Amino acid sequence: MFFRNLTLFRFSPAVAKDLKRLDEALADHRLRPCGPLEMGTRGFVPPVGRGDEAALTHEVNKCTLLTVGSEEKLLPAAVVNDELQRKVQKIAEEEGRKVGGRERKRIKEDLLTELLPRAFVRSSRMSSYVDRKNGWLVLDTASRKSAENALTQMREALGSFPAVSLAPEEGPRALMTDWLATGKLPGGLVLGDECELRDPATATGAIARCRRQDLDAEEVKEHLRNGKQVFQLGLVFDDRMSFVLGEDLVIRKLKFLDVVMDELGDSQQDAAAEMDARFALLTLELERLLAKMEEWFGLPRPTES
């Protein structure tokens, strides 16, 4: 269970102490199936194992894994609108009158009541973990909306969870643009083979995307000389992981390299042991990376709840 994308929040030591009750707090917020007339539900599901008795958290070395699940009814607007149009047309033909806006709204509401119980249900899961030692909430998503939804679920369960968005003291865009332009990166960090450059002067400015590209190439430097700045940059950290870092400090396309995977080995005796080993490896590797990001961009941990 290795994360592929990372959206990050920070919290204070006082908040970390409160997170010790996380498993108890989540108990009343398990995911439940969609009711016949509900469009969707959201709640927590066991990150390891299945069933109503399975724990909703899994802890290794002060890092607690949890999973937010959701069920969503699939009822395309086109289907509803087509059925609505048929009913409106039938009334016009049989009763010889036009259907007004208020009546159309009532008919549509009746259609939803009729169609929802028969709609397909799409399930989704999103893993995350809290690092109480270092004050990080790490969510396996690049979507800000999905991250905020998960954070809302945690706040509802805990009553309060004052995790905050990253507020870098060093501008990520300017810093990454300098890394690419000069080739002078922090120790242990080297350029990958992917970047996205934009002209920040206008909202509709030119965009240059490079993939599987030597980022030291002259054509890349020419874009920078013409005023473009780095919005996403492929990087390799300590020859152990590769990723694409955005100017929003969201990490995308995270991949552990062979040297890390070799350390995992294949000696685990069962699924639970393998889960522990993978989660421990994930959190230890990311602990090192996030500590460096804190240093590069100035990401202090909040001191108050």
N→C terminal distance: 31 Å
Our count of helices gives: 9
Overall geometric form = globular
* Helix amount: 25-40%
Count of distinct strands:
12
Structural overview:
With 305 residues, the chain is an alpha+beta fold. It folds into three domains: 7-75 and 118-165, no CATH class; 79-113, no CATH class; 172-297, no CATH class. Helices cover 37% and strands 26% of the residues. It has helices at residues 13-18, 22-26, 77-95, 101-115, 144-158, 172-182, 218-225, 258-264, 271-297, and strands spanning 7-10, 40-45, 58-60, 63-74, 120-131, 136-139, 164-165, 189-198, 207-211, 229-237, 241-246, 251-256. The strands form two sheets. Strands 1, 2, 3, 4, 5, 6 and 7 form a seven-stranded antiparallel sheet that branches. It has a five-stranded antiparallel sheet with strand order 9-8-10-11-12. A hairpin with a 4-residue loop joins strand 5 (120-131) and strand 6 (136-139). Helix 3 (77-95) crosses helix 4 (101-115).
Per-chain topology:
Elements: E1 7-10, H1 13-18, H2 22-26, E2 40-45, E3 58-60, E4 63-74, H3 77-95, H4 101-115, E5 120-131, E6 136-139, H5 144-158, E7 164-165, H6 172-182, E8 189-198, E9 207-211, H7 218-225, E10 229-237, E11 241-246, E12 251-256, H8 258-264, H9 271-297
Question: Could you name the key traits of this structure?
Answer:
9 helices, 3 domains, seven-stranded antiparallel beta sheet, 37% helix
